[in-house]
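During the no-cost extension, the postdoctoral fellow (Dr. R.K.) reprocessed legacy sequence entries with the updated structure-token encoder. One reprocessed record is reproduced below for audit purposes.
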Amino acid sequence: MSDKDILDHKIFYRRNLPHYQPESGIFFISYRLNFDLPLEIIEKLIKQKQEFEKRKRESKNKIEKSAELDFEKQQFYFVDNYLGLCKNSPKYLSDPNIAQIVMDSLFLMNQKQYELYCFCVMPNHVHVLLKPQEKKEGTFYSFAEILKGHKGSTARKANIFLKKTGSFWHKESYDQLVRSQREFEDTVWYIINNPVKAHLIDDYHKWKHTWIGEYVKQEMGL
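Re-encoded structure tokens follow.
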């Protein structure tokens, strides 16, 4: 399979995590620096997965797709809470120079590959809310294509600045389809309040590495 085939838009695609990308939609995407999660976190995730699979097997009724999506969200939020509070991971993104590299890259493809609504660069991970753009009639930029360019360019620049080599970003990312206006607003609030939840600041306005589109600010009264 060629790189072009891999990067072309697909309704469903996976590496180790499930991904769902309909032909158009707004998505909450998260990705982190390259480091291993502690064994206790991995064991907890495995246990949660085993318990969920057991409920599926024992259920008299078929588990709805929405229940599976809710479980994926549960695992994501469990890991995200750890990322925000952990003290032992690399925190390269807390350097304003590295954070600026990430922000500049996100802005670069805004209105080209996607429409950008909101993002927050945390010390060890990033949250983004965006809508993939149509690249030609009937086809849209895929997450694989968007993140390959973004992660590749930012990793090169960050490694040069840090005078290091090796993988900068973890290979996986999390994505969630935003299905309603209420969910859109809840996601914006989740993103901008991430530094507050992590006890880095006491007011989201104080975090210098958060961006919200003017349209979103007006609509939500931010």
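The longest strand covers residues 169-178. The chain has eight helices and nine strands. The remaining legacy entries will be reprocessed before the final report is submitted.
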